Amino acid sequence: MSDGAASAATRIAVIGDCPVFRHGISQLIGSATDLHLVATASSIEGLDGGLRGVDVVLMDLQQPAGSLAAAVARLRDRGHAVVVVSSSPQIDAVQVIRAGASGYLSRRAEGEELLTAIRAAGAGRGYVSVPAGHLLRRSPHFTEREQEILRLVAHGATDHKIAGRLSISKHTVQSHLDRIGEKAGARRRSELTRLAIEYGLTDQGG
Description:
- This protein is of the alpha/beta class.
- It has helices at residues 3-8, 19-30, 44-47, 65-77, 90-98, 111-122, 144-154, 159-166, 170-184, 189-198, and strands at residues 10-16, 35-41, 56-60, 81-86, 103-106, 127-129.
- The longest helix is centred in the C-terminal third of the chain and has 15 residues, at 170-184.
């Protein structure tokens, strides 16, 4: 990649306590012309000052959800978007999303989905794809269409993409989002993503 292309690309740091994961994801990112791998480490501390200029931190650490959430909050405070990869149940996703994570994926996610999540985080959107949605309750307050829209929001879809996917107008999408916001007291994209996780809406096709 040329210097100009590298400067225009989304800058990524990978933090993972598994060497195989770090190697695999490094190769994956290296194959994407719109992404630039800045640094890899086995811990946040191991990067030292290596996070300067990083847009997105992809993190896969075997830690309790509370510790992961604290790490996410520290990285967010430094201005980095964070995508967490984990094998933990979906309920842990709620904690890290509340802490500010832009994305949460299962370790079973395919490489292309990991890249999609990184790109979404780099663009300021959220992306969640985790199994075990059956562990969580569904909300009795949202209509079927509102649940569809919440699921698509959690998968990083913009209002325009949701409208195309559901064959409705962008104005109708925004009206549904307004009603969801009124019911749940949440309007920001990150808050809507958290709602989708809590109500078990992310285990269906994105």
